[in-house]
Amino acid sequence: MSEAAPSGGVPASALDPTQRMRIAYVLTLVGGYLDAYTYFKRGGVFANAQTGNIVKLGIALSNGASDTYLSFLLPIAAFTLGLIVALGAKEMLMLKKRRLVRRSVLVAEMCGLAIVGFIPLSREWDMLANCIVSFVAAMQYETFTTFRGDAIVTTMSTGNLRKFVDCIFAWTMRHEPAQLLRAVRFLSIIATFAAGAFVGTRACDLWDKAAVVPAIVLLGVAVIVITVMRYRHKS
Known about the structure:
mainly alpha; Growth Hormone, Chain: A; two-stranded antiparallel sheet; single chain; disordered N terminus
């Protein structure tokens, strides 16, 4: 899909490079990939979307499974801490430096995932791995919030699904072509998240704990693309 002006009327050429859709697709692919990785290789925990972990925590507490509830509680706490750190970074830094924060978050995510790649596959160590993934996923979630003028989530799909339905409904009622284009955009993001989960599942079958490596590569690609686009934007 070409990057024409978003719904807000801002030309694509005027967008910050981190708000381009190609970045959204890469980060969303990583989001689905990591959820599959932590679910299949790290004890059935969801790294990005904490709703599943909250449900599993409630079930564990209800069943008196005190030996498992920490597996879900700790990633929730790590995700919360990641949000606080990301919010604090945006609050403390001046506007001109916030652009660097976005790439710094991706680099930090790559470093965190690299550490995860060396953590053994065991119940005790899995809790540490999941906390790291949840922490960096929260920073990505809080830092990358808008693409092409739309609020698009790259670490989960519920909000994107609601936006897709909103756009379809608006297009059906008012016959606005722009709403149909937005609907296609949200649907493509949802499909990308599912594709990430599909690829992540296959990677887990092949590489065990090292299956996290492709996610690091994708994040590296995102950093390079952002850097190149920002350089071209300035020139």
